[in-house]
Amino acid sequence: MISVEDSALVIHTDGSCFQHPRRGGYGIRIIFPVSFSKDEEILDIDSPSYQNATNNQMELYAVIQALKHVESSVNFHEISRIIILTDSQYVSDNYSNAIFNWPKNKWFLKNGAPVLNADLWKELVKVSFRIKCRVEIKWVKGHAKNTDNKAVDKIARQSAKNKIKKIFKPMTVRRKLSPNIVNPGSIKSVGQRLSIHVITDEFLKLQKLFKYKVEVISKNSKYFHNVDLVYSKLLLKAGHSYIVSLKKNENLLTISKVIKEIVKETA
User: Fold this and answer.
1) Which of 20, 39, 77, 143 is catalytic?
2) How far, in Å, CA of 35 to CA of 205, rounded?
3) Which of 25, 27, 87, 228 is catalytic?
4) Domains and CATH numbers, the chain
5) pLDDT tens digits along 47-106
6) What is the CB neighbour count within 10 angstroms for residue 67?
7) pTM of the model
């Protein structure tokens, strides 16, 4: 258990995601300090279902929406700090990076890779700065003997099953030809040519970069059927196949040139 003073506002958050179709939701439980009333007051908040959402995105979005709710409804003179408890190490471990490091590097990592979900991280930092007291994000073990953590997990799962309200992220998704799942690092970028099939395409607005999930369809390549993430400033389309040149970059799989699109022959 995490001990807090009576004037701290405690928020439990959780995100959930299902496949086929990919959809997500979040759960929030706000526990108001005793200074608000004689008895502890609890508020549970669910969400609609969001198409194309990932689990990490829903974990982040839950924290953002929780802080926005607090911002619009809480008298900050009555609380000393806000403690957000999440079972997502992705959120808890990277909160300080989103405040201090990533903005300085224009939302790129040291190895040159773009920070994923940068728009959500930026929004989280923005709303936390607007809050009139200290905001802390702490990790708690998921599905442990914690009533509140179990409660938000249940809310998040149910939210993900709700009727889809909107598309969370613009992304085109197509069937992959390979039986393999995505395996980051399974393709090496050493300046070679490859034939690839694009499974998903997504534009990273802050970094002005495209993120693709691709599979290698060059039968003579040692990477044949490998599925990986690749980045480029060049526009490709999901469901299409291309011959491309990769940059010589050990840290990041990057397309430097599209040689030609592979057009399927029709009978």
Assistant:
1) 143
2) 43
3) 87
4) 8-167 (3.30.420.10), 172-260 (2.40.50.120)
5) 999 998 999 999 999 999 999 999 988 777 778 899 999 999 999 999 999 999 999 999
6) 23
7) 0.89
